[in-house]
Amino acid sequence: MGHITANTSGGPVVTADKPSGPWRDAWRAFRKNKMAMLGLSMILLFVLIALLAPVLSPYDYKAQELSNRLQPPSAAHWFGTDDLGRDILSRVLHGARISLWVGTFSVVGSIILGTLLGILAGFFGRWLDMIISRLFDILLAFPSILLAIAIVAILGPSLQNALLAIAIVNIPTYGRLVRAKVLSLKNEEYITAARAIGMKNSGILLHHIMPNSLTPIIVQGTLGIATAIIEAAALGFLGLGAQPPAPEWGKMLSDSRQFIATAPWTVMFPGLSIMFTVLAFNLMGDGLRDALDPRMKS
Amino acid sequence: MTQPILQIEDLRTHFFTDRGEIPAVDGVSLHVHAGEVLGVVGESGCGKSVTSLSVLRLIPSPPGKIVGGAIRFKERDILRLKEREMRGIRGNAISMIFQEPMTSLNPLFTVGQQIREAVSAHRGLGKKEARAHTVDMLRKVGIPRPESIIDEYPHQLSGGMRQRVMIAMAISCGPELLIADEPTTALDVTIQAQILDLIRRLNEENGTAVMMITHDLGVVAEMCDRVAVMYAGKVVEEGTVRHIFKNPLHPYTQGLIQSVPRMNEQRRRLFSIPGHVPILHTQMRGCRFADRCQHVMPACYEQLPELVELEAGHRSRCLLHEVKFKEDVV
C-alpha cells in the first residue's frame, strides 16, 4: 500500500488493518486536499526513485568518462554530463537516496531528543524546565547553519556528521513545540480525570500526553524534512557534508557552479531536484496541518 | 451516628500567585457519612471545587498548595499518604466526576479504552475480563448498546452520554465516595435530571457516599441529605436539606434561597444579593460576607464569627446568632 510507505517519512499513521477514528478522519480530510495529495505523490515517487536508484540509473554514478565532459542533455545522457564526464541523471537519482536519508533521519533524531526534552520540561516543569528551556534558547541564539557548520567543523566533514549536526540544530524546534503542547495538555480536564482515577505519571505521559502531542510533531516533522534537506545541501555545498564522489545534490551544485554559464544543466538538475523535494514535503506538511489541526482545536 | 468516612478538618488550600497568596479554601471543615449525599453549595470561586480537588490531592502545584488541616478518609489522613498510596485511593476508594463531559475524555481513545485504564490501574483484570467489566459498567449507567458504544470515540457521543461514560469510569472500581463536581452544569435540563437520577440510584443501590459540588439549589433539594454552604473559602452554614431550605440561618444562605425563582409567585424582579464576592487575601478580618449583608453590624468587620451549632446538626457562622443567643440567655 502506497500510503504506508509514506509513514517512514513522517506521514500520517494510516494503517489499513486497524482503522482508528481520529486518524481516519484526518486521512479523509487530507485526501480531499489536492495540493497535499500532489505533495504526497511526489514524495512517494522520490522514495521509489531512491529505493530503485541502482536499477533506474543508466550509468554508474561515479564512473568518469573524461572524453565526455560537460555534455548537454542528449538521448544517451538525459540530464547531460558533469565536468568529470559523469552521467548527471544517475547522480541525481542516487542523490535522492542521500537527501531523503539525511532529511528523514536527522528529523527523526531531532524529534526523539526534542520530544523527550520537551516533555520533561513541560510535564515536570520547575527547575528542569528552566534548564532545558535555557538550553533551547542557547541553541536558538546561533544562526542554525552557523551552528551546524561549527558542529561539523568539530566532528569533521562527513555525511553522518552533517546529519548529526542538522539533527542537533533542530532539537529546539521540536522541543519547544512539544513543551508548549504539553503545557496546554496538562490543563486539559481529561488529564485531571486520568489522575483522578489513579493513573501514574508514566501512564498519563504514555497514554494521554504523547498521543495528543503527536499531531503538531507530525506536521512540523514533515515540514522539517524539507528544511533538513536544504540544510544538508547547504553543508554539502560548503564541502562540509557528503564527500566526493557521493552524489549529494548540494555538493553537485557547488562542484558545478563555475560552469553555470557554459553548462547550466550541471546545476539545473540537482537544483531542481532539491526544489521539488522540498516543495513536495512543504505541500504535504501544509496539507497535514490542515487535516490534523482543526480537529485538535475543536 | 457512625464515624464519617470522609472528615475534612480545618483544610487550608492556598494559591501562590503574582498577586500574592490567595486562601481559596480557608479553614473548611466538612464530613460525609457512609451512604450519604452531601451537597456543597456556593457561587463561583467560593472554594468548593478546590475543596473537592484537595480531597484527591489533585491541586495543581504550583501555584496551589494545601497549607494546613487534615483530610481523614476512613481514619487515614490523606494528606500524609505517599503519592503511591494516594494513587491506590484515587479512582478506587474515592473517585470523581467533572463538570465538562466534553473535555474530560481523551479524544484519541475509545470509550472502552479509557474505562479500562481505570480498571487496570486498580484491578489486575485480563483483557477479556476488563472488557466484560467495562460493558457491565456502561450498562449500569444506562448506556444503550454498550457492546458497540465501547468501541466509539468521545466525539461520536452526546454530552449526556459522555457524562454517563465519565460516571461509568468513576464507579468502575466500586468507590466508597464519589465526588461529583458540578456534574450537570454543562448539560441541558432533561439530561440533567437523568444524570442526577443515575447518581441517586448509585447512591441508593451501592451505598456509595456522594459529595455533590454544585451552585444549583434545585440539584441540592433533589439530591442531597445534608448541605454545606460555602462563601469565600469558608463554610458559612451546614445542616440537613430541611434545615437549609426551611430555616436558613445565615444571611447568605437566606439570600441564596430568596434568589431562586418560584413558579407560583407573581412575576417580579428576581432577588439578588447586592455586591460582589470579595477578593481573597490572607490578611482578611471579620466576616467575609459583611460587605453584602443586610444585617451587617460594626462588629462584623472586626471579628470572624465561629461556626456555631444552633440545633442538632445545623450550624451557622454569623454574629447575629451570638447576639440573639445572649439576648435569650439574658
TrEMBL record, chain A:
Listed transmembrane segments: 36-56, 98-123, 135-156, 217-239, 259-281
Chain ranges of the ABC transmembrane type-1 domain: 96-285
Annotated Pfam families: BPD_transp_1, OppC_N
Membrane topology, as annotated: Multi-pass membrane protein
GO cellular component: plasma membrane
Subcellular localization(s) per the UniProt record: Cell membrane
GO BP annotation list: transmembrane transport
Record carries keyword Transmembrane helix: yes
InterPro entries, per the entry: ABC_transport_permease (IPR053385), BP-dependent_transpt_permease (IPR050366), MetI-like (IPR000515), MetI-like_sf (IPR035906), OppC_N (IPR025966)
Keywords for the protein's UniProt record, in alphabetical order: Cell membrane, Membrane, Transmembrane, Transmembrane helix, Transport
SUPFAM superfamilies linked to this entry: MetI-like
Main location, first listed in the record: membrane
Family: Belongs to the binding-protein-dependent transport system permease family. OppBC subfamily.
Descriptive protein name: ABC transporter permease subunit
UniProtKB/TrEMBL annotation, chain B:
GO cellular component: plasma membrane
Broad class of where this protein is predominantly found: membrane
Segments forming domain ABC transporter: 6-257
InterPro entries: AAA+_ATPase, ABC_Ni/Peptide_Import, ABC_transporter-like_ATP-bd, ABC_transporter-like_CS, Oligopep_ABC_C, P-loop_NTPase
SUPFAM superfamilies recorded: P-loop containing nucleoside triphosphate hydrolases
UniProt superkingdom: Bacteria
Coiled-coil intervals, chain numbering: none
A Pfam family per the record: oligo_HPY
Entry's Gene Ontology molecular function annotations: ATP binding; ATP hydrolysis activity
Keyword vocabulary terms for this entry: ATP-binding, Cell membrane, Membrane, Nucleotide-binding, Transport
Family recorded in the similarity comment: Belongs to the ABC transporter superfamily.
PANTHER family: DIPEPTIDE TRANSPORT ATP-BINDING PROTEIN DPPD, OLIGOPEPTIDE TRANSPORT ATP-BINDING PROTEIN APPD
Protein name: ATP-binding cassette domain-containing protein
Native species: Paenibacillus campinasensis
